[in-house]
Amino acid sequence: MLKNKSELPYIGIFKLGSGEEFIGKVIDETITSYTITKPLTIVQVPGQGPQFAPVLMMADGDKPITFPKPLITGIPSAALETQYESITSGIALPQKSSIIS
């Protein structure tokens, strides 16, 4: 279970035992699994640099996917979480402003 993210849904980052990393919105969590919507991984695109891509290319992107535990888990940075929400919602979110003193 992720620390500091006890309320569902939440966005988490995950790493499989094989080394693949991905980000996704956790909509359900049990003792044995996570159910995640729109899991995305980062891939290198020639001439464009890193881009998000679906974890399972042939799966229906609108249906949740269940991943068994144990996974290595973490909480994404605020910038990564904002980028993920912008991509998956289709709405460009404004960047949070800060006061520089």
Radius of gyration, taken over Cα atoms and rounded to an integer in Å = 14 Å
Specify the CATH class: Mainly Beta
Strand content: 35-45%
E-strand count: 6
Overview of the structural elements:
The structure is a single chain. This protein has 101 residues and is mainly beta. It has a single domain (10-89), classed as SH3 type barrels. The protein is 12% helix and 41% strand. The protein has one helix and six strands, in the order ββββββα. It has one helix at residues 78-89, and strands at 10-15, 21-29, 33-45, 49-54, 65-68, 72-74. Strands 1, 2, 3, 4, 5 and 6 form a six-stranded antiparallel β-sheet that branches. A hairpin with a 3-residue loop joins β2 (21-29) and β3 (33-45). It is globular, with a radius of gyration of 14 Å.
How do you describe this structure in short?
With 101 residues, the chain is mainly beta. It contains one helix and six strands.
Quickly list its features.
6-stranded antiparallel sheet, SH3 type barrels, 101 residues, mainly beta, 6 strands, 41% strand, 1 helix
